[in-house]
Specification:
The chain is mainly alpha-helical. It folds into two domains: 364 residues, no CATH class; 124 residues, 3-Layer(aba) Sandwich (Rossmann fold). It is 62% helix and 4% strand. It has 24 helices and five strands. α3 packs across α5, α6 packs antiparallel against α7 and α15 crosses α17. The radius of gyration is 25 Å and the shape is globular. The N terminus is likely disordered.
């Protein structure tokens, strides 16, 4: 199978011009084979991501629960906590409503048991993630060839951070899936509009440029509705193609404005209905996060963090392979997109790994290009042990540096916060929990979406204050735990259970014993003390002595 660039007419960089290779030589598959191949890829991805979802048992980011499942639970069952972002109209109901529908179906089928309530949302997200894997495969085949697509899929499935994050119910996870799917349709439109490209010859009859572009715009609009910052990605993609368009006015007036207006109108009406007032979420979101730097309240990083720490940690040992693929493939449009997204997000003070998750699959696609080049070298030198061992060693290196890390981060790291809520959920359904107090930084655990029982619970509030320098309850507790608990809550016996970090237990131990609390040992929670790069989260749950 030949591993080569398309002709310049197909969008290759200068210097690669030449006669277009035949489908057989370029590694492209005939239409009948493509259909079968795509089905096999989807089946593999569905099975893999389902197992992926079942293996993710740890806590990563509060938004997974508090900005999605907690809201969905409130919509479906009438109780659940809405954080301050929802009271200010900074979030759209579009994403949580997907999981609210799932909750409703589970309730109608009487399947809303503690275990199912925990796992069902991630299993649903695993279906979305599987389609993201499929579209990365198709996108890689569109841009390069089938061999690169196979190795890109390998990179996507093996990468530790993708395994750790993509099946979580974060809006960034769904944004990533939509971004990859949207890019596939967008570049299909570009390729099919070029009469000399291979893609045009294969798909011009069944897939017109205009329809593919409309699908891409619809997906882009939905992505921006879920995460307004997704506009950063699509601004780059759109402008890059817009500059070269001949019918610019037609594109803007007949494609961009109608599709964007319809999606904006539908999501706005949906939010008006759910909020009960006229709220324009994208505007509020951008005003708070972009113009007022409201996200800085949750911490800031140096401007180069994404380039020097954040993204390298996500792509991990795939980084040198991706860099090789970027240089050798000379697909500057996509490598430029990665740099653009990392650069724009670097301007903002508040930075998180998940913010740049949508461009991780693109980097892994370049890693697939590098591995495909090694595979091609192996095929040309079947008797050369050096080239054969290079590919094998690379695969072994990637597997042993990513798979153990995937399993550790998904099964053990910060698992206590998930386990304690699952424990309380089972206890509550057996009638042994009356009320719960969480003495830890706010949003450290899941909440009603996991408990799935309507009983009083109290956590330490961390709503940003309009007065700078004012400490929230979480900060006040961490500053002086014993004095804060005694002054704010007084008689702790009004709570049947108290959940707190082990590090804070010693500060309030006498209060707990004085109020007749006993420590509850949670079966299955791993306890590991001592300095380490990764420290397992350990929770103590205290129950009122009976």
């Amino acid at each position: 199978m030949s591993h080569r660039r398309r002709s310049r007419a197909a969008g290759s960089p200068p210097g690669d011009a030449g006669p277009a290779p035949t489908p057989e030589k370029s590694g492209r598959i005939q239409p009948r084979a493509v259909l079968g191949s795509d089905r096999r890829v989807l089946a593999l991805a569905l099975a893999f991501r389902a197992a992926n979802a079942l293996l993710v048992r740890t806590y990563f980011n509060p938004d997974e629960h508090w900005q999605c499942l907690e809201v969905a639970h409130r919509v479906a069952f009438g109780y659940g906590h809405l954080t301050w972002e929802w009271k200010r109209g900074l979030r759209s109901y579009l994403h949580p409503l997907i999981f609210a529908a799932l909750y409703k179906i589970l309730a109608l089928l009487h399947l809303d048991t503690p275990w199912v309530m925990v796992m069902a949302p991630r299993l649903l997200q695993s279906v979305f993630a599987a389609f993201g894997d499929l579209y990365l495969y198709k996108f890689s085949k569109l841009i390069f060839n089938g061999q690169v697509a196979q190795w890109a899929l390998f990179s996507q499935l093996v990468n530790w951070f993708m395994f750790f994050c993509i099946t979580r119910t974060l809006s960034n996870s769904l944004e990533t899936v939509l971004t990859v799917a949207g890019l596939y349709y967008w570049f299909t439109a570009i390729e099919s509009s070029k009469a000399t490209s291979i893609v045009s010859k294969q798909h011009a009859v069944c897939e017109q440029s205009a329809s593919s572009r409309k699908v891409a715009l619809l997906i882009a609009a939905l992505s921006c509705a879920i995460r307004p910052t997704s506009a950063v990605t699509w601004l780059y993609v759109g402008l890059l193609d817009f500059i070269q368009m001949k019918s610019k006015c037609r594109f803007v007036l007949l494609d961009v404005i109608p599709i964007g207006a319809i999606v904006l109108a539908v999501t706005t009406l949906l939010d008006w209905w759910m909020f009960g007032s006229r709220v324009i979420v994208p505007l509020n979101f951008l005003k708070f996060n972009l113009f007022s730097s409201g996200g800085d309240y949750y911490g800031t990083h140096v401007f180069h963090w994404y380039f020097t720490q954040g993204f390298p940690s996500m792509i991990w040992t795939f980084l040198p392979f991706a860099m090789y693929g970027i240089v050798k493939s000379r697909e500057w449009r996509l490598s430029g997109l990665i740099a653009w997204v990392l650069g724009v997000y670097s301007i903002l003070g508040h930075k998180e790994f998940r913010f740049v998750l949508p461009v991780l699959p693109l980097a892994l696609m370049f890693s697939g290009y590098c591995l495909a080049a090694m595979s091609q070298l192996k095929a040309k030198n079947q008797h050369g042990k050096r080239s054969l061992s290079r590919l094998q060693l690379s695969v072994i290196l990637l597997v042993i540096t990513n798979v153990p890390m995937s399993l550790y981060m998904s099964l053990f790291h910060q698992r206590g916060t998930e386990d304690v809520m699952y424990y309380l959920s089972k206890e509550a359904h057996d009638g042994r929990v009356k009320s719960v107090l969480f003495l830890m930084p706010c949003h450290s655990t899941p909440y009603y979406s996991t408990l799935h029982y309507d009983l009083p619970m109290r956590f330490l509030d961390c709503t940003p204050s309009d007065n700078k320098g004012t400490l929230d309850e979480s900060d006040r507790f961490l500053t002086s735990p014993s004095e804060f608990v005694g002054g704010v809550f007084g008689n702790l016996s009004t709570f049947s259970h108290i959940v707190l970090f082990e590090s804070e237990e010693r500060h309030v131990l006498q209060l707990l014993l004085h109020n007749s609390f006993l420590e509850v040992q949670l079966a299955g929670v791993v306890r590991w003390r001592g300095p380490s790069l990764f420290v397992l989260a350990f929770r103590l749950c205290w129950g009122l002595r009976r």
